[in-house]
Amino acid sequence: MRTRSQTRNRNRRQQQQTLPVVVEPCILQEPIPGPTIVAMADRTMEELLRAPTEGYGEAIVLPEINADHFEIKTNLLQLVQANPFHGLENENPHAHINSFKRITSTLRFRNVPNDVIKLMMFPYSLEGAAKTWYEKEPPNSILTWDDLVTKFVNQFFPPSKTTHLKNKISRFSQEFDESFSEAWERFKGMLRSCPHHGFSELTQVDTFYNGLTENEQDSLNSAAGGNLLSKTTREALNIIENKSKVRYSRNKTNASKVNSRENVSKTDERIDKLADQLLTLVEIVSKKVVTPAPVKAVEENCVTCGGAHAWYNCPATDNNQNVCATTGTYNQQAPPN
């Protein structure tokens, strides 16, 4: 006895056999042209041993220029090469980008965007480690000027350096014998060294004010008319800038103190050198001077009778001073008058 499922499967197979088979016509397409592949057997040994040349492309992709008679002058290239970036630790890539943009902004060509000029000339501004970095970039990986700036800054200004500079700004403190104007200039230099620090003007004023000495804070409050916090951020910055332009006599006093300390330190060094020279001379002299050996006392011994007295006191000679021994031990003491 057949089940319902078996009957259903049998009917499905019969329907599939009765359906007509439609065959679509085969359309022949022309082959897509591709690179000509030369068989290994058709190449010479010289060609097979030759180094490959694929993959040696520029990292920067220059867009097509439609201008006529476009040419970069040699003097401009020399100006760019005169201020190269080497990739050293003390170099700032942001400062190099700004300097490079100022130089290239002097060029104006019709139908030539300025970004194209910057892309063409930027590799000429690199030397040393920076040039090595650019040469190792993958071919056709830089399409725009923004791409180039992003890769360049991330390579030579990593996030760790940004964190270090931001912490240094936050811990700002006026140094010993540093004037107000010197402290302000140093603080602005720290801000310029990290253009993307993210500190607002309010934070900058607060950080600089808290880093000053108490005397400088009181002087700044006096310049603000009693309290710097009663001013707006822009007014506070103007007060600080105007105060930094005033040269106090204290700066000269501090400079004289520093110079006097330097002179004292130099004098102390000279004294120490002279003392060392004197000690050396004393040691040399002490080595050359020979201490005389102690003289043994001469015992009195009479050459006439052998008694323990001088020969001129000998009772046997009756103080006869004409007696003199030619040999033996005698006292060299002169006879009494």
UniProtKB/TrEMBL annotation:
One of its GO terms (molecular function) is RNA-directed DNA polymerase activity. It comes from the Eukaryota. Keywords: Nucleotidyltransferase, RNA-directed DNA polymerase, Transferase. InterPro entries: Retrotrans_gag_dom. Residues 121-213 form the Retrotransposon gag domain. The keyword Electron transport does not apply. This is Reverse transcriptase domain-containing protein. The lineage of its organism: Eukaryota, Viridiplantae, Streptophyta, Embryophyta, Tracheophyta.
